[in-house]
Amino acid sequence: MMGGVRPSAAGLVLLVLLSLSGCTGPDGASTPTPTKTPEAAGVQPAAETATPPPASAAEGSNTTAEGEKATATPVPGSAARYTGLPLADPSLLQETPVLVCINNDITSRSAHYGLNEADVTYEFIVDGYHLTRLTSLYQSIPAREIGPVRSARWPNIHTTYMFDGILACSGGSDGIRYLLKNEVGFPYLDADSEDPESVTYFYSVGNNYRTRLRTSVDRVRRWMIDMAKTCEVSPLLPYCLEVFSPWLEGQKRNPRPVERARFHFSDTPKEFWSGEATAIRIPYPENNGVEWRYDAASGRYLRYQSGAVHMDQATGQQISSENVIVVFAEHELTNIVEDSLGTLSVKINLYGFGDLRVFRDGKVYEGTWRANDQSPPRWLGPGEQPITLKPGRTWIQVVRTSDRISFQ
Fold first, then answer.
1. How many domains does the chain fold into?
2. Are 186 and 178 spatial neighbours (Cβ–Cβ below 8 Å)?
3. Which helix or strand (DSSP H or E) is residue 247 part of?
4. For 30-50, what is each residue's pLDDT tens digit?
5. Alpha helix segments (H runs only) across 101-190
6. Quick check: is 10 in a domain?
7. Contact between residue 140 and residue 92 where contact means Cβ atoms under 8 Å apart
8. DSSP-assigned letters across all residues of 335-369
9. Are residues 96 and 236 in the same domain?
10. Dist. CA 314–CA 380, nearest whole Å
11. Of 33, 147, 306, 327, which has the most beta carbons under 10 Å away?
12. Between 252 and 225, whose confidence is greater?
């Protein structure tokens, strides 16, 4: 249970929007659990930033224009950690990043909402190496329509720790769900158990389980506030006792630093790029291959998957990104069963280091990624020089070490 003086309800609202300080994040019963140690104390903001979620799916429809984040009047010295773009509201720098599990099978791609408002999106192989899934991170834009939300996978543990975030998904296999509800040191919102009717923290559009479920940044933050109040009233509830209250206690000890680790950005590309790259092809298995084509007019890469244009229905625009990063990482099957067919979970080692390719402005950089559970990944070029990203969105394409991507 929490020690010392218990914070007020207003204090709890503030605390649940700040940094994470956790315990552990494992991959399975037979594998050692990754751990997270507390960060150094920093400056605590003075104002609450959460807003109530929309009351209905209609109110939750997207109203943020594609260009808003680049045209908002900046506050001096404020820029988003993971986009490098100016922020009109510097309090967003104190927001805990929200990570959402998003379906990416061939049916769900026509129902993608909110991907062009994510600061960072990961794509990785899941379920016995036969499809991919997305995890999008939201901090600088409070996206009001995100989906379709689906179940958690093993890599979500590593990604949520690295970005010190909140994870929101719709269930998971018994093994993954147990880890997320009992072992990790960050808050996990599970639609199946926390909002089975999809009326409070999620909402439903249609009946197809692959495409129906959506959420928003505000809805996820509302759950954090409600969970804090629940744990204040009933501190002996298992989830409060084992996960949420220790996390909340960490917020009192280690509030989110104002100058937390962030990506490095520059409007001008570094000169150590290794070649031109206006087309990138990534060979994901079973006809899930991805292609990015550079559009010089917008300075972004445009996304295609399985040979088709990939659209964000929230903005009505093709999914695009200023930066595309290909991360080569070790993959292995675990003993966690993902479905009734016996498909095994894929463990991807996103801690440590490995090869990478960074694409921006039609150019490619070769180098090494480094990552741990304490801070976001670093992208390093020759002589450990940081590879600076172009201000804007970043897509991280995680592939196997044996995969051969191509670009020209």
1. 2
2. no
3. helix 245-253
4. 333 344 433 333 333 333 333
5. 155-162, 174-182
6. no
7. yes
8. EEE-STT-PEEEEE--SEEEEEEEEETTEEEEEEE
9. yes
10. 34
11. 147
12. 225
